[in-house]
Amino acid sequence: MVVLTGALGERVNYPDPVCGIKGSTITLPCTFTPPKSVNDNGTEVLIDIIRVVWCKNHTICQGTTPSVYDSKSNNNNPRYRYLGDKKGDCTLQISDLQEEDNKTFHFRMEANDDKAHWTGQSGVRVTVQDGARMKIRSSRDDGEFKRGEEVTLNCTTNCSIHQLEVSWFRDGSALSESGPTIHLSYLTAKDSGKYTCGLKKNNLTLSELYSLHVEEGGGLPLAGLVVGVLLVLFAVILVACIIKRKRAAGRDQTAVGRDEEQKHSENIYSNNLLPLAEQQGPNSAVEEVSYASVQFTHKKQTRLAEEVEDSITYSSVARTG
């Protein structure tokens, strides 16, 4: 970086020389420091920057010197975009780089007092290369990958990688990516192929082929992963059902055992009562028959005694008469 300082303390910080490919976009980072004030016939005048200018191949950049950007002009070339301000940032962006940009660019600031006007005379050198082929650099040394791995591809040149508008191709078919870098995550067989890249506005910059091959057998396919998860869930559900059934069967067996125990107790009770009834039944019947016989005999004997007594009485009466 080049720093130039003026008599009043003004300065411009230029970047190192910049190299760019024809058709690409480059940025010239730049900062400046204007003087705070100047003495005008004994009066201190506070400085305010009112104009900024970029020109090429002119060390002063004033008057009728052609400029690529002028803050007071409404006819600036759209290829040159001023990204700075009037406070301290003088960054310039050049898009669709052309051979005519193979020059030295200078920045000039103009203030509300002529004594504060100043141009950074060293400037920044821009080199334009035409026809230089791009190169693909991979995050891996080789182009052999397994399924599920990832890789980053960078489209670069030996000259510059400033904000490149790049076209990417796989087996000759254009990809949707447009930046200088593409990231391929979870590689599959469909990512295999021959990759190339180049500037959108310069077909001569198309890179050499980069071969990328993804092995079919490597890694775990997404479908296999999903199936594996489903199998695990099925196994968990199956085990839960088996445990639930076992617990239900245990409760049923317990209930059956209780019923059998109750039936057994009732059988024992019935068996105990039956012999007792059998033992008491005949005796009771005999006693009832005997009792009836006794009652019947007693009454019969009483009647016979009465009849005998009546007969004796009757006989006695008859004799007396």
TrEMBL record:
InterPro entries per the UniProt record, alphabetical: Ig-like_dom, Ig-like_dom_sf, Ig-like_fold, Ig_sub, Ig_V-set
Pfam families reported for this sequence: Ig_2, V-set
SMART domains in alphabetical order: IG
UniProt keyword list: Membrane, Transmembrane, Transmembrane helix
Presence of keyword Transmembrane: yes
Domain of life: Eukaryota
Domain Ig-like: 134-207
Transmembrane segments: 220-243
Sections of the chain in a coiled coil: none
Protein name: Ig-like domain-containing protein
Organism annotation: Perca flavescens (American yellow perch)
